[in-house]
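Quarterly update from the structural biology core.
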Amino acid sequence: ADARFVQRQTEVDAATQQIAETRDELTRQSHEVLAERRKVLDKRSEMERHLTEMREWYRRKLRELAAGRKVDETDMPRLVGESVGIPSPPAVEVPTADPDPGDQHLGELLKSRGLVDEVTLQALWGEAHRQRRTLRQTLLASGALTLYQLALIEGGNLDGLMLGRMRVVDRVRATSKETAYRVFDPSRPGGPTRGVYVLRHLTESEMQDAVRPDEFRQRFATMVQASHPNLANTLEVMEINKRPAALQEWVSGLASADWPPVAATPGVWLKLLADAAKGIHHAHRGGLVHGRLVPESFLLTADGTLKILGFGDPLWLSGGSQTVEPPPAADLRGLGQVAFVWSQLGSRRRGTRPKPLPAELTNVIRRLEIGSEPPMGDVVAIDRPYADAAELLRDLARLTESHPCPTDSWEKLVRFAADNSPDVPQLKASA
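Predicted structure, tokenized:
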């Protein structure tokens, strides 16, 4: 009897323990469900806030347009929490006849999406009538909307107008590996581009790879730490729709292959090369190698800043055939070939032969090109290449003392770049 009693007590204790463990597990699961529900509600609240801000953004832009003011993607309202004065459109002569069916449909669509109010819509119809254009043509010609934005609105895809907190202005490029957008970041409304940046978003198909999503995150995170004035910088790495994305500077400038002959002036050439070397040296110190430097990798912006594109991009993302990470020496050889191209820009001047660079500057090209096939068939490379970008910088600093950059020539180059830079930036050079 005692044995049976002990066995029964043991069973009761085990059952009690099991009940306690089950209760604790259910309590834990309940807390997890509540926490997950709070996350969902917070995310929904955030998305609704972004949607409200985005609608306000469009209403403001369209009111500006209806008021006869020039509008583009940099005309953004301030952040939530600040007083935002949305101008009322002036009295406009509205046509007595109804808008044509296409304008009527588009206008009602904009109104139903909460992107325009009735008064502004009437003014926009009147403005389109005055310009003898359709409403669609008026919106696109004004810069208030891009073709991509309008396509999303007409397709009823308002969610596509936002990526996380970003407001999508345009789609710059789409490949099988990533999609690049021009976006407005309401948390970074300042700077030279007034809040407009490039957002690079990994595609869904690349998420199936076991390595690439993490490499994307890690590589661009390294680029965030390696910020430098002469690099196209990455500002932030984030997750959007459960895929990694990188926010980068909106860099617009003139590619070096299109620079005018004045860029071959010794002092100007030397300054350009020194600025390029500064960016390369900083990137190398941060553990980043380009490996594919070509003339299109270098841009001169409207304010006279030389920018290098594509530093740190994973090899598979660039679309090239390389599978092995290049050494830093590859960037010096690539820079040598580009520097030679810059030295020959003077040959574009009609009726004149380009004046060769002084011998000490030509020697810089020779030392950079060691280890690659020289572009100049009559040049014999000297014995010792540059050990690294730091040694190159020291040599260029010494040469700058005897070959200063002429102010008038530099200003002429910068004006040319400002006048001839495309509106849409190159994200990186082709591989």
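Residues 241 and 288 are 28 Å apart (CA to CA).
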